[in-house]
Design goal:
By secondary structure, the protein is α+β, with helices and mostly antiparallel strands. It has a single domain, classed as Aminopeptidase (3-Layer(aba) Sandwich). The chain has six helices and eight strands, in the order αββααβββαβαββα. The chain is globular and about 40 Å long.
């Protein structure tokens, strides 16, 4: 089954490395989160509360995204359901200076590859605020399949209603998705 060790590997790519979050990453996370644009669509804008929750989490498996030795953001496995061979990739944010550099593309690739090729997942889900056009475009570019909008899905940021756009990649899609992501990473690197 998918134990904590399997869900928290260090994943090394050409552009970024994903490391399981640890207290030693706190200062790097604070520095990466200093630009408030990184938090526009997060469920909270309280960086300290987010870091504390991420370090204490037992139901999510947080990674820091490291490029050239510096923390540039975070991403996670969450809603892990090994009995259904599915999980979600989300709770993702990056410092704006990393936007458009291939860092997020490769982070998604590393997590997807691990999910399908090491864990044997059949389905990987993503969800984002339906109004988050940047994230929706990035998910479509994976390409993840758009599956619809869940209205009033969450309450975020001081009681704001969030409709969530859902996307997924299934194991049948993985060979084509993998090839597409590898082409994009090669072009970015």
């Amino acid at each position: 089954m998918w134990d904590d060790e399997l869900l928290r590997p260090t994943l090394v790519g050409q552009i970024v490395t994903l490391e399981p979050i640890e207290p030693r990453h706190e200062d790097g996370l604070r520095a990466a989160a200093a630009d408030e644009r990184a938090w526009t669509w997060m469920y909270t804008r309280d960086t300290e509360a987010w870091i504390a929750a991420a370090l204490a989490a037992t139901d999510m498996h947080h990674f820091v995204v490291v490029r050239d030795g510096d923390v540039i953001g975070s991403t996670s496995y969450l809603n892990v359901m090994p009995e259904y061979l599915r999980l979600e990739i989300g709770n993702t944010w990056n410092t704006p200076s990393a936007w458009g550099t291939g860092a997020n593309t490769e982070a998604k690739y590393l997590l997807l590859r691990h999910a399908f090729e090491s864990l044997g997942a059949r389905r990987v889900e993503f969800k984002t605020d339906a109004k988050n056009e940047r994230a929706r475009a990035a998910l479509a570019a994976i390409p993840a399949e758009f599956e619809g909008i869940h209205r009033k899905h969450m309450i975020v940021r001081d009681g704001e209603r969030r409709d969530s756009a859902w996307y997924a990649v299934i194991d049948d899609d993985w060979p084509d998705v993998k090839a597409a992501l590898e082409r994009r990473i090669s072009a970015a690197g």
